[in-house]
Amino acid sequence: MYGNDAAAALGLRPVRRRHWGRWASAVIIVLLLAAVVRAFATGAIEWDVVGEYLTADMILEGLANTAVITAAAMLLGVLVGILIAVLRLSANPVANAVAAGYVWFFRGVPVLLQLLIWYNLALVFPSIGVPGLWEGSTVEVMTPFMATLLGLGLHQSAYTAEIVRGGILAVDRGQTEAALSLALPSGAVFGRIVLPQAMRVIIPPLGNEFISTLKTSSLAAVVTYGELLQSAQLVYYRNNRVIELLIVVAVWYLAVVSVLAIGQYAVERRYGRGFTPTRDASGPGVRGRARGGVRARKTMGSEA
């Protein structure tokens, strides 16, 4: 006899376990959230000002600049990061050492400091260019946009390089060797076998880095680039509505991050097709096999 039959035979009945601590913690969390919401709602914040500037032209222009610099910095970071990742995987010790030093430097120096270094590069190099082809004043070349692009993009490339390298190393080397034994070109092996599997490992952290770069772009205000926070600062310097304008900035950041998170989830599902998540393999699948085993034992018992 099994389960309920055995319990009934012994005169026992199941008793639902009560999770008093779980319910108490849930009530406390709800009360704290309600208190925070009430404090903001009844405080000295003028919410009509928030609504007024949420779609103001200057704020929307700053939002557009934030989107442009984020996309450009991520593009630069991915392209340079892939190159650095390839060098890190190279058997050439010099190339490997140079790539490791690159990652060490750009990952170790704070982003804010990198932005300031690029913006003031004219102190070290008054002019930059290609000898014999083009040369220009560093002050004119290193605009706020260019300084922000290089600061965010090269900083991001160091992290992207490690993400890509980790994704490639996560692919079983035996698959690459098997493909090469079939006389497939190296490019086809990488593009059709290694990369699709590596993308499953690369996309989640790379998506998080995209979101991180979006938020880090607010540091560009120190080099006077007209992104979202800089635009809000120009407004509240005039009307002194600091908190209201910062709430506007927070709302737009949350909205854009939510859209990016949805896109990241869709891309993860696209590259995750055909692969069973670990929790499914150890969850329902195991329980299904367990139920099958019970049914088999019941059948054997009945036959006996």
Automatic annotation (TrEMBL):
**GO biological process, alphabetically ordered:** amino acid transport
- InterPro entries named among the record's database cross-references: AA_ABC_transptr_permease_3TM, ArtM/GltK/GlnP/TcyL/YhdX-like, MetI-like, MetI-like_sf
Annotated GO MF terms: transmembrane transporter activity
What are the record keywords, sorted? Amino-acid transport, Cell membrane, Membrane, Transmembrane, Transmembrane helix, Transport
What PANTHER family does UniProt report for this protein, alphabetically?
A: L-CYSTINE TRANSPORT SYSTEM PERMEASE PROTEIN TCYL (PTHR30614:SF0), MEMBRANE COMPONENT OF AMINO ACID ABC TRANSPORTER (PTHR30614)
CDD domains xref list:
TM_PBP2
Q: Which Pfam families match?
A: BPD_transp_1
Region listing for Disordered, in residue ranges: 278-304
Q: Where is the ABC transmembrane type-1 domain?
A: 63-264
User: Where is this gene product found?
Assistant: Cell membrane
The record describes its membrane topology as: Multi-pass membrane protein
Its cellular-component GO annotations read: ATP-binding cassette (ABC) transporter complex
Q: Where is the composition biased (Basic residues)?
A: 288-298
Q: What is this protein called?
A: Amino acid ABC transporter permease
Where is this chain primarily localised?
membrane
Spans through the membrane: 23-45, 65-87, 99-119, 245-267
Indicate the family of this protein.
Belongs to the binding-protein-dependent transport system permease family.
